[in-house]
Amino acid sequence: MSSADYLLSDSASELERLRLQARVWEPETEAWLDQFGPMTGWRCLDLGCGAMGILGPLAQRVGPSGHIIGVDVDPMQLRGARAFVAGNKLANVEIIEADAYASSLPDNSFDLAHVRFLFAPVGRDAQLMNELWRVTKPGGTIAIQEPDAAAWGCYPPSDAWDRLKTVIGEVFRRGGGDINAGRRTHAMLQERGAEDVRVRAAIVALAPSHPYLRLPIQFATSLKNRILDGGLMSRSELDEAIAECERVASNTQTIGTTFVVMQVRGRKPA
After folding, report:
1. Phi-psi region of 182 (alpha: psi -120 to 50; beta: other; left: phi over 0)
2. Alpha carbons 71 and 177: distance in angstroms, whole number
3. What DSSP assignment string belongs to 192-219?
4. Full-model pTM
5. Where residue 86 sits, what CATH number does that domain have?
6. CB–CB of 22/57 below 8 Å?
7. Coil, strand, or helix at residue 127?
8. Tell me: the pLDDT tens digits for 161-180?
Protein backbone atom coordinates (compact mmCIF):
# COMPACT_ATOMS: atom_id res chain seq x y z
CA MET A 1 0.00 0.00 0.00
CA SER A 2 1.41 3.38 -0.99
CA SER A 3 0.60 6.48 1.04
CA ALA A 4 -1.61 7.54 -1.87
CA ASP A 5 -3.88 4.55 -1.22
CA TYR A 6 -4.63 5.68 2.32
CA LEU A 7 -8.00 7.41 2.57
CA LEU A 8 -6.97 10.14 5.00
CA SER A 9 -4.47 12.90 4.29
CA ASP A 10 -0.82 12.97 5.34
CA SER A 11 -1.05 16.53 6.69
CA ALA A 12 0.19 17.80 10.03
CA SER A 13 -3.43 17.93 11.24
CA GLU A 14 -3.82 14.24 10.45
CA LEU A 15 -0.64 13.52 12.39
CA GLU A 16 -2.07 15.32 15.41
CA ARG A 17 -5.40 13.50 15.02
CA LEU A 18 -3.58 10.17 15.20
CA ARG A 19 -1.64 11.26 18.27
CA LEU A 20 -4.85 12.33 19.99
CA GLN A 21 -6.47 9.06 18.92
CA ALA A 22 -3.64 7.04 20.48
CA ARG A 23 -3.90 8.95 23.75
CA VAL A 24 -7.70 8.64 23.95
CA TRP A 25 -7.69 4.90 23.34
CA GLU A 26 -4.59 3.99 25.34
CA PRO A 27 -6.46 3.18 28.61
CA GLU A 28 -8.80 0.82 26.74
CA THR A 29 -5.85 -0.71 24.92
CA GLU A 30 -4.10 -1.27 28.25
CA ALA A 31 -7.21 -2.95 29.69
CA TRP A 32 -7.43 -5.19 26.62
CA LEU A 33 -3.75 -6.16 26.67
CA ASP A 34 -4.09 -7.04 30.36
CA GLN A 35 -6.29 -9.93 29.22
CA PHE A 36 -3.50 -11.41 27.08
CA GLY A 37 -1.51 -12.62 30.07
CA PRO A 38 2.28 -12.28 30.44
CA MET A 39 4.01 -10.95 27.32
CA THR A 40 7.59 -10.73 28.56
CA GLY A 41 10.06 -11.44 25.77
CA TRP A 42 7.44 -11.37 23.01
CA ARG A 43 8.23 -10.18 19.51
CA CYS A 44 5.33 -7.94 18.45
CA LEU A 45 4.23 -6.13 15.30
CA ASP A 46 2.12 -2.95 15.20
CA LEU A 47 1.08 -2.85 11.55
CA GLY A 48 0.15 0.62 10.30
CA CYS A 49 1.28 2.14 13.59
CA GLY A 50 1.02 5.78 12.53
CA ALA A 51 2.57 8.34 14.84
CA MET A 52 2.17 6.31 18.07
CA GLY A 53 -0.07 3.30 17.61
CA ILE A 54 0.15 1.01 20.63
CA LEU A 55 3.94 1.03 20.66
CA GLY A 56 4.19 2.31 24.24
CA PRO A 57 1.88 -0.27 25.86
CA LEU A 58 3.51 -3.09 23.92
CA ALA A 59 7.05 -1.96 24.78
CA GLN A 60 6.20 -1.87 28.48
CA ARG A 61 4.74 -5.37 28.44
CA VAL A 62 7.42 -7.22 26.49
CA GLY A 63 10.26 -5.67 28.52
CA PRO A 64 13.94 -5.40 27.55
CA SER A 65 14.04 -9.00 26.32
CA GLY A 66 11.18 -8.38 23.87
CA HIS A 67 11.11 -6.50 20.60
CA ILE A 68 8.46 -4.34 18.93
CA ILE A 69 8.36 -3.41 15.25
CA GLY A 70 6.13 -0.57 14.12
CA VAL A 71 5.33 -0.44 10.41
CA ASP A 72 4.02 2.45 8.36
CA VAL A 73 4.42 3.72 4.82
CA ASP A 74 3.79 7.46 5.14
CA PRO A 75 6.96 9.57 5.66
CA MET A 76 5.27 12.00 8.05
CA GLN A 77 3.86 9.21 10.20
CA LEU A 78 7.23 7.46 10.23
CA ARG A 79 8.94 10.63 11.42
CA GLY A 80 6.28 11.03 14.11
CA ALA A 81 6.68 7.42 15.27
CA ARG A 82 10.47 7.67 15.40
CA ALA A 83 10.24 10.91 17.38
CA PHE A 84 7.82 9.23 19.81
CA VAL A 85 10.13 6.25 20.25
CA ALA A 86 13.18 8.45 20.79
CA GLY A 87 11.37 10.84 23.11
CA ASN A 88 10.14 8.01 25.30
CA LYS A 89 13.43 6.08 25.16
CA LEU A 90 11.76 2.91 23.90
CA ALA A 91 14.94 0.94 23.28
CA ASN A 92 13.02 -2.22 22.39
CA VAL A 93 11.03 -0.56 19.57
CA GLU A 94 12.06 -0.37 15.92
CA ILE A 95 10.20 1.62 13.25
CA ILE A 96 10.42 0.49 9.65
CA GLU A 97 8.93 1.68 6.38
CA ALA A 98 6.90 -1.07 4.75
CA ASP A 99 3.61 -1.79 3.02
CA ALA A 100 1.13 -3.03 5.62
CA TYR A 101 -0.48 -5.24 2.97
CA ALA A 102 2.70 -6.73 1.55
CA SER A 103 5.71 -6.22 3.80
CA SER A 104 9.03 -7.99 3.47
CA LEU A 105 8.84 -9.14 7.08
CA PRO A 106 9.63 -12.84 7.47
CA ASP A 107 6.92 -15.48 7.74
CA ASN A 108 5.93 -16.84 11.16
CA SER A 109 8.07 -14.33 13.04
CA PHE A 110 5.83 -12.55 15.58
CA ASP A 111 4.20 -13.68 18.81
CA LEU A 112 1.65 -10.88 18.29
CA ALA A 113 0.58 -9.07 15.13
CA HIS A 114 -1.70 -6.09 15.75
CA VAL A 115 -3.57 -3.66 13.54
CA ARG A 116 -5.84 -0.77 14.50
CA PHE A 117 -8.10 1.37 12.28
CA LEU A 118 -6.73 0.11 8.98
CA PHE A 119 -9.56 -2.11 7.78
CA ALA A 120 -11.96 0.84 8.24
CA PRO A 121 -10.38 3.49 6.00
CA VAL A 122 -8.76 1.22 3.41
CA GLY A 123 -10.60 -2.10 3.33
CA ARG A 124 -8.89 -4.87 1.31
CA ASP A 125 -9.88 -7.26 4.09
CA ALA A 126 -8.50 -10.47 2.63
CA GLN A 127 -5.13 -8.96 1.74
CA LEU A 128 -4.62 -7.39 5.16
CA MET A 129 -5.76 -10.52 6.98
CA ASN A 130 -3.40 -12.61 4.86
CA GLU A 131 -0.48 -10.40 5.88
CA LEU A 132 -1.38 -10.57 9.57
CA TRP A 133 -1.70 -14.35 9.33
CA ARG A 134 1.54 -14.76 7.37
CA VAL A 135 3.80 -12.93 9.82
CA THR A 136 2.30 -14.46 13.00
CA LYS A 137 4.01 -17.51 14.49
CA PRO A 138 2.01 -20.71 14.85
CA GLY A 139 0.44 -20.38 18.29
CA GLY A 140 0.81 -16.60 18.13
CA THR A 141 -1.93 -13.99 18.47
CA ILE A 142 -3.56 -11.79 15.85
CA ALA A 143 -5.16 -8.72 17.42
CA ILE A 144 -7.45 -6.27 15.62
CA GLN A 145 -9.10 -3.02 16.73
CA GLU A 146 -11.68 -1.48 14.39
CA PRO A 147 -14.65 0.89 14.81
CA ASP A 148 -18.40 0.51 14.90
CA ALA A 149 -19.87 4.01 14.53
CA ALA A 150 -23.35 3.23 15.89
CA ALA A 151 -22.68 4.88 19.26
CA TRP A 152 -20.73 7.87 17.91
CA GLY A 153 -22.64 11.02 18.78
CA CYS A 154 -23.01 14.17 20.82
CA TYR A 155 -25.60 15.30 23.32
CA PRO A 156 -27.62 17.48 22.94
CA PRO A 157 -27.94 16.14 19.39
CA SER A 158 -26.66 18.20 16.46
CA ASP A 159 -27.87 18.01 12.87
CA ALA A 160 -24.48 19.23 11.65
CA TRP A 161 -22.67 16.53 13.64
CA ASP A 162 -24.98 13.84 12.24
CA ARG A 163 -24.54 15.17 8.70
CA LEU A 164 -20.74 15.07 8.93
CA LYS A 165 -20.86 11.58 10.44
CA THR A 166 -23.00 10.36 7.52
CA VAL A 167 -20.76 12.00 4.92
CA ILE A 168 -17.58 10.65 6.52
CA GLY A 169 -19.02 7.15 6.46
CA GLU A 170 -19.92 7.52 2.79
CA VAL A 171 -16.39 8.70 1.91
CA PHE A 172 -15.00 5.62 3.65
CA ARG A 173 -17.40 3.44 1.65
CA ARG A 174 -16.54 5.02 -1.68
CA GLY A 175 -12.85 4.60 -0.92
CA GLY A 176 -13.29 0.86 -0.38
CA GLY A 177 -13.38 1.04 3.41
CA ASP A 178 -16.09 0.72 6.03
CA ILE A 179 -16.48 2.95 9.07
CA ASN A 180 -18.24 0.00 10.76
CA ALA A 181 -15.48 -2.52 9.97
CA GLY A 182 -15.35 -3.60 13.62
CA ARG A 183 -18.59 -5.52 13.16
CA ARG A 184 -16.85 -7.94 10.79
CA THR A 185 -13.53 -8.62 12.46
CA HIS A 186 -14.68 -11.44 14.76
CA ALA A 187 -16.05 -13.35 11.78
CA MET A 188 -12.89 -12.59 9.77
CA LEU A 189 -10.71 -14.34 12.33
CA GLN A 190 -13.08 -17.27 12.67
CA GLU A 191 -13.30 -17.75 8.92
CA ARG A 192 -9.51 -17.58 8.59
CA GLY A 193 -9.19 -20.46 11.04
CA ALA A 194 -8.10 -18.65 14.21
CA GLU A 195 -8.64 -20.44 17.49
CA ASP A 196 -9.98 -19.09 20.78
CA VAL A 197 -11.37 -15.94 19.14
CA ARG A 198 -12.39 -13.37 21.75
CA VAL A 199 -14.04 -9.96 21.53
CA ARG A 200 -14.13 -6.91 23.77
CA ALA A 201 -16.05 -3.69 23.08
CA ALA A 202 -14.64 -0.34 24.21
CA ILE A 203 -16.28 3.08 24.25
CA VAL A 204 -15.16 6.37 25.77
CA ALA A 205 -17.47 9.01 27.24
CA LEU A 206 -16.43 12.53 26.27
CA ALA A 207 -16.89 15.22 28.89
CA PRO A 208 -17.50 18.86 27.92
CA SER A 209 -14.52 20.41 26.11
CA HIS A 210 -12.88 17.03 25.48
CA PRO A 211 -10.69 17.43 22.37
CA TYR A 212 -12.06 14.22 20.84
CA LEU A 213 -15.44 15.96 20.46
CA ARG A 214 -13.81 17.61 17.45
CA LEU A 215 -13.24 14.30 15.67
CA PRO A 216 -15.94 14.86 13.00
CA ILE A 217 -14.27 18.20 12.24
CA GLN A 218 -10.84 16.58 11.99
CA PHE A 219 -12.15 13.85 9.70
CA ALA A 220 -14.07 16.29 7.52
CA THR A 221 -11.03 18.54 7.20
CA SER A 222 -8.79 15.63 6.25
CA LEU A 223 -11.39 14.31 3.79
CA LYS A 224 -12.39 17.71 2.42
CA ASN A 225 -11.29 17.14 -1.17
CA ARG A 226 -13.01 13.75 -1.33
CA ILE A 227 -16.22 15.21 0.08
CA LEU A 228 -16.25 18.06 -2.43
CA ASP A 229 -15.04 16.06 -5.44
CA GLY A 230 -17.62 13.36 -4.69
CA GLY A 231 -20.45 15.91 -4.61
CA LEU A 232 -21.44 14.87 -1.10
CA MET A 233 -21.59 18.48 0.10
CA SER A 234 -20.99 21.85 -1.48
CA ARG A 235 -18.11 23.95 -0.17
CA SER A 236 -20.51 26.28 1.63
CA GLU A 237 -22.44 23.36 3.15
CA LEU A 238 -19.23 21.76 4.38
CA ASP A 239 -17.90 25.01 5.80
CA GLU A 240 -21.19 25.68 7.59
CA ALA A 241 -21.32 22.15 9.03
CA ILE A 242 -17.74 22.38 10.28
CA ALA A 243 -18.39 25.79 11.83
CA GLU A 244 -21.51 24.49 13.59
CA CYS A 245 -19.62 21.44 14.87
CA GLU A 246 -16.93 23.76 16.21
CA ARG A 247 -19.64 25.57 18.18
CA VAL A 248 -21.04 22.26 19.40
CA ALA A 249 -17.63 20.97 20.48
CA SER A 250 -16.77 24.18 22.35
CA ASN A 251 -20.12 24.38 24.13
CA THR A 252 -19.60 23.57 27.81
CA GLN A 253 -22.95 21.76 27.85
CA THR A 254 -21.95 19.28 25.12
CA ILE A 255 -21.00 15.73 26.00
CA GLY A 256 -20.43 12.84 23.65
CA THR A 257 -19.63 9.21 23.09
CA THR A 258 -17.01 7.79 20.77
CA PHE A 259 -17.60 5.11 18.22
CA VAL A 260 -17.28 1.63 19.69
CA VAL A 261 -13.91 -0.01 19.18
CA MET A 262 -14.29 -3.74 18.67
CA GLN A 263 -11.15 -5.39 20.08
CA VAL A 264 -10.84 -8.89 18.66
CA ARG A 265 -8.05 -11.42 19.05
CA GLY A 266 -7.48 -15.00 18.03
CA ARG A 267 -4.68 -17.54 18.00
CA LYS A 268 -3.05 -18.93 14.87
CA PRO A 269 -3.13 -22.72 15.18
CA ALA A 270 0.17 -24.24 16.32
Report:
1. alpha
2. 20
3. HT-EEEEEEEE--EE-TT-GGGGHHHHH
4. 0.93
5. 3.40.50.150
6. no
7. helix
8. 999 999 999 999 999 999 99
